[in-house]
Amino acid sequence: MTTVLILASLFNLLLMRVPVAFALGGLGLLLLIIGGFSPLMAPQGLLGTIDNFVLLAVLLFLLMSNVLLKGGVGRDLFAAVQAWVGHLPGGLAIATVISCGIFAAISGSSVATAATIGTVAIPEMSKRGYPRPFVLGLLAAGGTLGILIPPSIPMIVYGFITEESVIALFKAGIGPGLLLMALFIGFSMVYAWLSPTYKPSPAAGWEERWRTGVRALPALALAGLIIWGIYWGAFTPTEAAAIGFAASLVITVFVLRTLSWADFKDAVLQSMVTTVTILLIVAGAKVFGKAISLYRIPQDVSMFISQNFSEAWMFILMVGLVLVVMGLFLEALSMMLIMVPVLAPSLLGLGIDPIWFGVFFVIMIECALITPPVGLNLYVIQAVGKASMQEVAKGVWPFLALMLFTVLLIYVIPDIALYIPFKM
Prior knowledge:
Elements: H1 2-15, H2 20-34, H3 41-50, H4 56-70, H5 73-85, H6 91-107, H7 110-127, H8 132-143, H9 153-162, H10 166-194, H11 206-231, H12 237-255, H13 261-294, H14 297-308, H15 312-326, H16 332-347, H17 354-369, H18 376-385, H19 389-412, H20 415-423
Helix pairs in contact: 1-2, 2-13, 3-13, 4-7, 4-12, 4-13, 5-6, 5-7, 5-11, 6-7, 6-8, 6-10, 6-11, 7-8, 7-18, 8-18, 8-19, 9-16, 9-17, 10-17, 10-19, 10-20, 11-12, 13-16, 14-16, 15-17, 16-17, 17-19, 18-19
């Protein structure tokens, strides 16, 4: 009964539009006081959360992605990919998905990926006769690759919560990320082939391919550096983020010469705002998590699950359904911080690998990013494409179905996620 009352109180606060950080932290502090525990646990939890080396990667990856965004790197990247694949059936859509995947491997941010590639892809695809709902839906869904293809900010947070290896989580995201890209590309080709308004693009000449490829080479080199450094153990994810940020400044200031002082200040300001938001939510969740642990709620939930969901597939199905519902009114990081501490103790008892569950959870919160009414990517693409929410929401449903199909595939074939981190 206590568990139900606490969860009901939390959701009531969220429905009353209390900011997530204050809903979690305030309710956690109240529970500590009511339970007779020392309220000093709250500031201790806040300090312990913010003073963390792993979370420093979030700030640095955000800085890097915003510098690249302001420096026009996404535009150069899209132009290069378009020059090579634009003449294929659905070529611009293929170029959009590949560009999203490459930029995701640099930034780790879904919003930055959607905004960067959307700015250049939406006008180009519209000119080639792609229906606007399809274009907007593709960009909103393609942006979600930013939190699946490593480096991924939500995976860093998941690793922080569960104390799992962030590098193993990054490796586990590669297979599902590539699979999702392949499904998006396949659907785009079929859609273009069936669309009566689609206009094929002429093949680019070798001179244009060379010119745009050279322009995009620094961004590709940066993605390669980050991926190589993390996977081969040259540096930690946090060190990779710091090196990536420094390299992004070199690329945009000295190589491409596209980043002005005003752009740099904007990038720092936007990164600061986003980082403070994330850290406040994480800190509030830490206080709430401490309180519910003292009330033994995770243990009670684990016992309830073990008594009522003896099969792993039933547990996964229920978690997936809950995430779909929560995604209608909560953003991705909040869902992770609320649910993972409660669910994590049940995983080993059901034989579910925590690394695999991290990938599953990230894909499901990807779905939340493109689910109305609170899907963050929908608002980003709506702003970039100057479109109505109805247009954007109409276009995302096929891609949402493909993402849920990917979840089914990684459940049936777990090695899609687990082969690279554990068998290579």
